[in-house]
């Protein structure tokens, strides 16, 4: 079923050739999205921090063509080279969004993309990549039709979600909410909403240090992971717990209780991994180094009283979250105690960012 609100309006301008570039960041979920419906809506709401320096830069050159087919015509370059491995994902994305952006059929798209983070660092790039591409497409829609800024970003989030669920949360900076929840009047399963009011100043410029523990390709794609939730024996209780955690986290974000923040965020990360361990087939996505790092972070928190905690994506790398005023102590700790667990001692220092930028 098509969502009427997002079908592009009548074209009111003639554009033969134009190029747009956007850089869009990755994001890290605090309450995780894990499990989805066929229409790429989530089984439970999620909340994330939008990052700053871990980003994808994408330029799209749109050239008018005569296309009589119903397939969007494009070529794809990644880090300067023609790319075939991401092509299938983009083809699938285009085959769904063409109903919302039919004007794309009139153009040949040359898409050139690159990531700020090392190519095979094991950092999920689909959120930054899909949001950057969606913003370029929306820039063309804005050129061709009459839309305001609010709709521009809302539809960018809507189409990003179709490419990669978590990408919809990268469209806005700060802290983002995706999904619906009976406690809150805002929120949609179709796009994300920035949580702008009543956030404690303790979360301003919050830091995320990403420890690269595994550089390899993800052992299991997130699409497969989401699908495993359909038969996971704990799925219903998980969806309920995620909703409870959203209520708790919203209160924590307002109160600035960082001890509660650490407990909740770590529990979410471990629950995500326990779901992978209890799926059929099952997956252990942590490496021995992941566990060593987790234990050291907990020890450091206890000994130093610094509210530093970890979270994980569906992989072995560890995100370390901490308030900006403890940067020096935590970075020293990472250098001295944790970097030995990283591939070539690699880690990335990032922080909550202001969202995508047109360049
Ligand atoms: O957006 P996807 O389909 O790559 O799924 C992302 C899933 C997690 O990163 C594990 C959690 C999340 O909410 O981002």
Write the layout of secondary structure elements.
Elements: E1 17-31, E2 46-64, E3 73-78, E4 81-82, H1 87-97, E5 107-115, H2 126-144, H3 149-163, E6 175-178, E7 192-194, E8 207-211, H4 222-228, H5 235-255, H6 258-277, H7 288-304, E9 309-312, E10 318-322, H8 327-338, E11 347-351, E12 357-358
Parallel strand pairs: 3-5
Antiparallel strand pairs: 1-2, 1-12, 2-5, 2-6, 3-4, 6-7, 8-10, 8-11, 9-10
Helix pairs in contact: 2-3, 5-6
Bound molecules: (3R)-3-hydroxy-3-methyl-5-(phosphonooxy)pentanoic acid (PMV).
Give your account of this protein's structure:
With 359 residues, this protein is α+β, with helices and mostly antiparallel strands. The protein has 2 domains: 4-196, Ribosomal Protein S5, domain 2; 207-351, GHMP kinase, C-terminal domain (Alpha-Beta Plaits, 2-Layer Sandwich), CATH 3.30.70. The chain is 34% helix and 22% strand. It is built from 8 helices and 12 strands. The strands form 2 sheets. Strands 1, 2, 3, 4, 5, 6, 7 and 12 form an 8-stranded mixed beta sheet that branches. A 4-stranded antiparallel beta sheet has the order 9-10-8-11. β3 (73-78) and β4 form a beta hairpin. α2 (126-144) packs across α3 and α5 runs antiparallel to α6. The two termini are 35 Å apart. The mean pLDDT is 95. The structure holds (3R)-3-hydroxy-3-methyl-5-(phosphonooxy)pentanoic acid. (3R)-3-hydroxy-3-methyl-5-(phosphonooxy)pentanoic acid is lined by residues 29, 32-34, 46, 124, 126, 164-166, 222, 272, 313-314.
């Amino acid at each position: 079923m098509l969502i009427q609100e997002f079908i592009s309006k009548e074209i009111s301008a003639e554009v033969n050739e134009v190029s747009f570039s956007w850089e869009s960041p990755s994001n890290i979920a605090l309450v995780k999205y894990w499990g989805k419906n066929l229409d790429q809506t989530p089984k439970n709401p999620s909340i994330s921090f939008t990052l700053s320096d871990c980003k994808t830069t994408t330029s799209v050159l749109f050239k008018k063509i005569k296309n009589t087919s119903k397939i969007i015509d494009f070529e794809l370059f990644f880090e300067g080279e023609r790319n075939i491995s991401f092509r299938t994902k983009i083809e699938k994305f285009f085959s769904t969004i063409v109903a919302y952006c039919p004007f794309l059929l009139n153009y040949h798209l040359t898409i050139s993309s690159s990531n700020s983070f090392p190519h095979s660092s094991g950092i999920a790039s689909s959120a930054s990549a899909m949001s950057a591409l969606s913003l370029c497409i929306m820039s063309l829609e804005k050129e061709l039709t009459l839309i305001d800024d609010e709709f521009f970003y809302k539809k960018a989030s809507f189409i990003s979600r179709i490419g990669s669920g978590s990408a919809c949360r990268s469209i806005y900076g700060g802290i983002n909410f995706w999904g619906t929840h009976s406690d809150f009047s805002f929120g949609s399963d179709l796009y994300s909403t920035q949580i702008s009011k009543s956030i404690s100043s303790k979360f301003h410029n919050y830091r995320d240090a990403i420890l690269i523990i595994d550089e390899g390709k993800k052992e299991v794609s997130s699409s497969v992971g989401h699908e495993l939730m359909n038969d996971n024996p704990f799925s219903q209780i998980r969806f309920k717990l995620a909703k409870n955690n959203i209520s708790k986290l919203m209160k924590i974000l307002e109160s600035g209780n960082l001890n509660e923040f650490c407990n909740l965020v770590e529990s979410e990360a471990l629950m995500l991994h326990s779901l992978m361990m209890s799926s059929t087939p099952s997956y252990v996505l942590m490496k021995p180094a992941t566990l060593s790092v987790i234990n050291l972070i907990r020890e450091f928190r206890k000994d130093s009283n610094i509210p530093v905690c970890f979270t994980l994506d569906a992989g072995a790398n560890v995100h370390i979250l901490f308030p900006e005023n403890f940067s020096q102590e935590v970075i020293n700790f990472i250098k001295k105690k944790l970097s030995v667990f990283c591939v070539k001692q690699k880690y990335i220092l990032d922080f909550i960012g202001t969202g995508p930028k047109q360049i």
